Amino acid sequence: MSELRLQVNGRERTVDVDPATPLAYVLRNQLGLTGVKVGCGLEQCGACAVLVDGESVHTCVAPAGQFAGRSIVTVEGLVENGEPGPVQRAFVEAGAAQCGYCTPGLVVAVTALLARVPDPDDTAIRTALSPHLCRCGSHAQVMAAVRALVSGTRSGRVGG
Amino acid sequence: MNDSTNPRTPSLAEHPGVDDWISIDADGRVTVHTGKVDIGQRISTALAIIAAEELDVALASVRVARPRTGTAPDEGFTSGSNSMQESGVAVRLAAATVRRHLVTRAAARLGVGAEQLEVTDGLVRVRDTNRSVSFGELTGGAPLGIAVDPDVITKSPDAHRLVGAVRPVGGLEGLATGATRFVHDLAEPGTLHARVVRPPHYHARLEALDESSLASLGDVQVVRDGSFVAVASPDEYRAVRAVERVAAAATWITAPGLDTTDVFRRLIEDPRESFPVVDGVPLREPVPEERPEPVGGATLRARYERPYQMHASLAPSAARAHFDGETMRVWTHSQGIYPLRASLADVLDLPRERVVVEHALGSGCYGHNGADDAALDAALVARALRGKTVLLKWSREDEHAWEPYSSAMVVDLRADLDDSGAVSYWSHETFSDTHRGRPRAGPNRAGAGRLLASRYLADAVMPPRAEPNLAHHAGIHRNADPLYAFANRRIVKHLVRDLPLRVSAMRTLGAYANVFAAESFMDELAEAAGVDPLAFRLRHLEDPRAREVLAAAAQRMGMPGPAPHGRGRGLAFAQYKNSKAYAAVAVEASVDDTARVRLHRAVIAADAGEVVDREGLRAQLEGGFVQGASWTLHEAVRHDSGGITSRDWESYPILRFDEVPEVETIIVDRPGAPFLGAGEATSGPAAAAIANAVFAATGLRLRRLPLDPDAIRRAAMS
Ligand code: FES
Ligand code: FES
User: Fold this and answer.
1) Is residue B62 part of a domain?
2) Which terminus of chain B has a smaller tally of CB atoms within 10 A, N or C?
3) Chain B neighbours among A 118-157 (CB < 8 Å)?
4) Is the same domain home to B416 and B398?
5) Taking Cα atoms as reference points, which of A143, A55, A56 lies closest to residue A105?
6) What is the DSSP letter of B506?
7) Is residue B513 domain-shared with residue B426, that is, in the same domain?
8) Among candidates B313, B618, B662 on the partner chain, residue whose Cβ is nearest the Cβ of A135
9) Is A21 in Cβ contact with B622 (below 8 Å)?
10) Do the Cβ atoms of A41 and B395 come closer than 8 Å?
């Protein structure tokens, strides 16, 4: 056990944990951020994705110690003033979830994508989301959510 | 009486009181009780809409209670696309009965005739006055104590303001923000995290556990009962790592291993129990011989094969349990809280009343995945660690290697074409292991024996022998009898037992393989008859609703008509169980130079009767298509004598975002018509539509699933 300082959702957090513990477990169990899902623990499904310095990163294997000093944003951190953020809103409006276990990871991946490429075409969206599995088959609705965000950005309705 | 309330639902026969279904508190808040659980299909949304519609209350004032044994109506399992027909009808009738009763009470209270009253948002008002009384005031929160009237007049469809309306899907906000808690997220301070240490394969037994090497595990406790071994720790990651340590300290007796004979051969050659199926129902009668092939006529035969496939839920199964020495409480994503309770009580040797099973959210399950097994695992650990709350999770490997799969199947088809090119004889034989492995109580401790851990306990209960399901369109023979108007047909169900892998119910049960086979064969016959596949189907199809969805899907896809260069189009149709939703699927596909099938477009046309929750229905239909496409293109569970080798997402891939085509969905709404379950309607047609599109694109007819690059290359070479 040792003290580990993490910057999570804009706050400095100190946790007492074995730094070899994968980040997902620390976020979920020490910090109560259970929006971070674990679907495989093998970096194969994308359920555990969070933003690390703006990039979508799997957290189910990499030790938490590696993330000291970096900016971590989980799906909970994308909520703005108690309301769903723009990507989250787009998912809700498009009905882009069935069981929703894949949803937090997808929301994170879409946020990272749009920060990098504000106007991605379908191929770019599909490529960016391909590391993420959805067993319920919500793919079409997820695509619709992202497209709505992209066209919203184009017309200036939604801030990128 | 409205059509959709007829026939009376079995749910209502078991639970005839309105209070079983609906309660209204003193503030007018409505709670709907159901035994059906949400498994991503949003049954709770549909039930809330139905209740709000019939009661004339605001949708926001209706909540659907989380099913728990003791308070929820016992509706068995959430399965077979029955939820809307069972719970949906019961809730509709209960709500209409409640509304009528409260209006009568209001009339007495306000001293007017009931016909002068109108109801808006739970407020009963004397028309054109300010005199009113609310539902909350009328009930005072007390039970109503009356029976549901099965003949109550329900709203006519043209008066519906909520049912069928387009609205944003409810309940998604918490999923998108991460606020929704799944069973996996139910750890509280003091909760112990538990994991199971699995044997190498089904038949392995624990010979020895070197306890001395476990001393250094720190705050990890090891629970052992026979060959069932689990670990628990306040720290989840320590529990995860302890699994490896304990596994290393365990010696297993591994002989005999798993049988590795080709399962398709065993399905054909092993001893079996066979039944003729007439009008969808298997009979305990001798199977009739095939009729002789007509001289000079055209007879076609084909064999279709489907491997073992898995549910592969995105989240590994999990459960929380707590035992205080008296009562075992279990939180589970099982699809049947009452059957699970009975089976748990049996294994734990507790009276049923001392086992409380409450539903908690899991990820999409699509049938009988590891949920029930995880519930027993958690309960066993909680029993050993009395007074502790235990949150037990399966690993990804556990889920892939230990969930009950959907059986491998073989379908043998034969058809004769007459001179006009019409089918004059149709024979369909299906060979499969059972699709019934749910922990349903039965003779010989059947429920207990179907929970995975039971067979490893010191006091082991082994799985019961599979009994044939002789119900209408049940497991193996589901959709074995196509809707087409063939003059002569011979449908045979073969139950083949004791095949190597553990099996149970998965979305569509046998229908997926049966529809894949029959609808692929229809294209082969159309080709032989020299007729376009759409026209060939329509020629044999009398049901106007079937014709309508088929024609709609074909038209939207531009069939018949040329596909873009290098691509082919395929069409398929089925009415799920010949009694639920009608669905036609059209697909445009090509095969790329790495022998991968690419899906470019898909069209679904479906008729699910009266539409209640349009977006929910669309998601069900499209999700069923995507899952069916994934089974069809990628999925086969593999094993060797040492155990299951499909142990993660690399060794068992599923369809990814860059492989899912654009899907257009046409929904034919039938206001006033009975609800028809739709969650399983598209997966079978998806398989055949893809196979037919691959044939159209390449001339290769693939009859063994999955249609992966290996299969394409093999077919291209032969
Ligand atoms: S849980 Fe991390 S990728 Fe699956
Ligand atoms: S919605 Fe269930 S896994 Fe994506």
Assistant:
1) yes
2) C
3) 123, 125-127, 129-130, 132-143
4) no
5) A56
6) B
7) yes
8) B313
9) no
10) yes
Q: Which two tokens stand for residue B237?
A: 């990651």
Domain count along chain B: 3
Indicate whether residue A102 lines ligand 1 (CB < 6 A): no
Instruction: Residue B40: name the closest of B78, B70, B75 by CA.
Output: B78
Query: Are B478 and B369 members of one domain?
Result: no
- Using a cut of 0.90, tell me whether the model's pTM lies above it: yes
Claim to verify: residue B427 and residue B328 sit in the same structural domain: no
Identify whether residues B241 and B207 lie together within a single domain. Answer: yes
Angle, CA of A74, A75 and A76, to the nearest 5°: 90
Cβ atoms B198, B398 nearer than 8 A: yes
Distance from first CA to last CA of chain B, Å, rounded?
A: 60
Counted residue by residue, chain B has a size of 718
The answer to whether residues B619 and B509 belong to one domain is yes
* Among A34, A136, A139, beta carbon nearest to B185: A34
Q: How far is the CA of A103 from the centre of ligand 2 (A)?
A: 7
B65 and B200 in a single domain? The answer is no
Tell me if residue B347 falls in helix, strand or coil.
helix
Tokens of B658: 């860059």
Angle (CA) B141-B143-B147 rounded to 5° is 145
- Residue A67, amino acid: F
Is residue B17, in this structure, part of any structural domain at all? yes
Ligand 1 atom having least distance to the Cα of A41 = 1
Any B CB within 8 A of A43 CB: no
Rounded Cα distance between B554 and B549, Å, is 8
Q: With CB atoms and an 8 Å threshold, state whether A100 touches B180.
A: yes
The residue type of B225 is D
Q: Do B193 and B222 reside in the same domain of the chain?
A: yes
The answer to whether the complex's ipTM is over 0.90 is yes
Please check whether residue B219 touches A, CB under 8 A: no
Nearest atom in ligand 2 to the alpha carbon of residue A106 is: 4
Alpha-carbon distance B585 to B370, whole Å? 30
String of DSSP letters for B223-263: EEETTEEEEEESSHHHHHHHHHHHHHHEEEE--S----S-H
**B137: containing domain:** 10-156
Strand, coil or helix: what is A15?
A: strand
Q: Is residue B586 one of the residues assigned to a domain?
A: yes
Q: How far is A159 from chain B (nearest CA, A)?
A: 18
B639-650 burial by CB neighbour count: b if 16+ within 10 A, else e?
beeebbebbbbe
Tell me the pLDDT tens digit for each residue of A87-100: 999 999 999 999 99
How many Å apart are CA B102 and CA B135, to the nearest integer? 7
Which of B156, B176, B196 is where one domain is finished?
B156
Which positions in chain B touch A86 (Cβ < 8 Å)?
none
Spacing, Cα B395 to ligand 2 middle (Å): 18
In angstroms, rounded to a whole number, what is the distance separating the alpha carbons of residues B617 and B424? 37
Report pLDDT for A158.
44
The beta-carbon neighbor of A34 closest among B181, B315, B657 is: B181
Cα nearest neighbour of B628 on chain A: A137
A75/B177 CB distance under 8 A? yes
Classify residue B270: in a domain, yes or no: no
Is the Cβ atom of A101 under 6 angstroms away from ligand 2? yes
**Nearest CA to B105 among B119, B92, B121?**
B119
From first to last of its 160 residues, chain A has per-residue pLDDT tens of 789 999 999 999 999 999 999 999 999 999 999 999 999 999 999 999 999 999 999 999 999 999 999 999 999 999 999 999 999 999 999 999 999 999 999 999 999 999 999 999 999 999 999 999 999 999 999 999 999 999 876 665 443 3
Long-range contacts of B237-245 (CB under 8 A, 24+ apart): B237/A18, B237/A20, B237/A21, B237/A22, B237/A25, B238/A18, B239/B192, B239/B193, B239/B194, B239/B195, B240/A41, B240/B195, B240/B395, B242/B195, B242/B217, B243/B195, B243/B196, B243/B197, B243/B395, B245/B213, B245/B214, B245/B217
Contact B678, B623 (CB under 8 A): no
